[in-house]
Design goal:
This protein is an alpha/beta fold. It has one domain (about 10-170): TIM Barrel. It has five helices and eight strands; from the N terminus they run ββββαβαβααββα. Strand 2 and strand 3 (about 35-40) form a beta hairpin. The longest helix is centred in the middle third of the chain and has 13 residues, at about 90-105. The chain is globular. The relative contact order is 0.16. It binds iron/sulfur cluster. Iron/sulfur cluster binds near residues 44, 54 and 87.
């Protein structure tokens, strides 16, 4: 059974990820048209979560990350890739590999997480998850809070969640919000 940090390297060195599925063209998971990978496994269990089927780290399917990259490469008219779930940071090696492949193709990289920026920086999800931050452009952080549900929140479910400009935040040493108009996309 695959467990937390379940993106793994098997005996033949093939990196795999446990996923709930992919969407090749999404217009709701970040700006523009995006390839989305929904990771399987989430430890946060937010009340009101819209994707509870992604919580179980042993469900979904285990796929070769190279196969996901192949599918990404065969998908035209993309502006970016979004890593969602579930929580992608449970599988940081796969996050890094997919993010790097996307960036090589000139695509922007967004990732969702139920951890806060500060928790990831403090190693709450492990060192590899902290390292994975430097491979992405925008982090949508924090757990979903049902009482803070807001339709005003673009690309987020509740008002506590933030759109964080990752390169600017790493440079500043603290979370810096994305400026969507003319900002990181
Ligand atoms: S972090 Fe996201 S996927 Fe996980 S329980 Fe919360 S809302 Fe659901």
């Amino acid at each position: 059974m695959t467990t937390a940090n379940s993106a793994n390297v098997t005996g033949d060195k093939k990196l795999t990820a446990r996923i709930a599925g992919t969407v090749r063209h999404s217009s709701v998971d970040g700006p523009g048209v995006r390839y989305v990978v929904f990771f399987q496994g989430c430890p946060h269990h937010c009340p009101g979560c819209q994707n509870p089927d992604t919580w179980d780290p042993g469900a979904g399917e285990e796929v070769a990350v190279d196969d996901l990259i192949d599918e990404l490469s065969r998908t035209r008219f993309l502006d970016g890739i979004t890593l969602s779930g579930g929580d992608p940071f449970v599988q940081p090696e796969a996050v890094m590999a997919l993010a790097d492949a996307a960036r090589e193709k000139g695509l922007t990289v967004w990732a969702y997480t139920g951890w806060t920026w500060e928790a990831l920086q403090n190693g709450a999800a492990g060192e590899a998850a902290k390292d994975a931050l430097s491979h992405i452009d925008v982090l949508v952080d924090s757990p979903f809070v049902e009482e803070l549900l807001s339709r005003e929140c673009i690309y987020r479910g509740s008002s506590n969640q933030r759109l964080i400009d990752v390169p600017a935040s790493l440079k500043a040493g603290e979370a810096v919000d994305v400026q969507l108009e003319g900002g990181v996309g």
